[in-house]
Amino acid sequence: MPLIVEEPNWKSVIDDAKQSVNQLILIVGPTGSGKSAMLENAASYNFTSINIGLDLSRKLMNLANESRVMDSEDIAISIIESKNPTRLAIDNTELLFEKPIQINPLTFLKKVSQRWLTIATWNGTTAKNKLIYGKQGCSKYEEFVYSEDDAFVVVPTLPILK
C-alpha cells in the first residue's frame, strides 16, 4: 500500500522510498498547488532534474502518430538514460497522459523507479486507492487504481479526498 506523507521531511521520505521495490515518490496536486516548488526542494538531495514534458515533446514532434504510440516509452527512457542519473526528479509529467502517446503514467513511473530512485509530479488528486489525473467532468479525467501490493510514497499538496 502506498505510504501517504502529509508533511514531507525529504530525508525521511527518500529513505522510505529507497526501501521499496518501486523507489517512487509522487508529489500530487492540481495545477498551481506547488508541486514544482516541492519537487525542486526535494531534488536538492542530489537528484537529476528532467522536464519530461518539454524533452519528450521535442523528440516526438516530428514523428507520425503511429511512431509516437510505438516509440514514446522507449524515447522517454532514452531521455532519462542520456542524463546518466543516480536519482531522478521528473517534472511536467502531463505529456505522459496525452493521446496518442498512450503511456500508462503510473506504470511508466513505477518502471522507471525500479532503476532509479524517482520523485515525480502528478497533476491531479489522490483518493483512497486511486491517483486521479485532471478534474472530474473534463475530457482528460482519468483514474489510476493502485493495489495493496503497490509500494510507493505519495506526497499530496492538498488534503486527500475521501
Q: How big a fraction of the residues is strand?
A: 15-25%
Structure summary, number of beta strands: 8
Give the helix proportion (percent range). Answer: 25-40%
Class per helix and strand makeup:
alpha/beta
| Uncertain regions spanning at least 5 consecutive residues | none
Shape summary? globular
Order of H and E elements: EHEHEHHEHEEEE
Describe the sheet with the most strands: 8 strands, mixed
* Average residue pLDDT: 89
Assembly state = single chain
Whole-angstrom Rg:
15 Å
Distance between the termini: 16 Å
**Number of distinct helices:** 5
Structure description:
With 162 residues, this protein is of the alpha/beta class. Helices cover 33% and strands 25% of the residues. Strands 1, 2, 3, 4, 5, 6, 7 and 8 form an eight-stranded mixed sheet that branches. Helix 3 packs across helix 4. The longest helix has 18 residues. The mean pLDDT is 89.
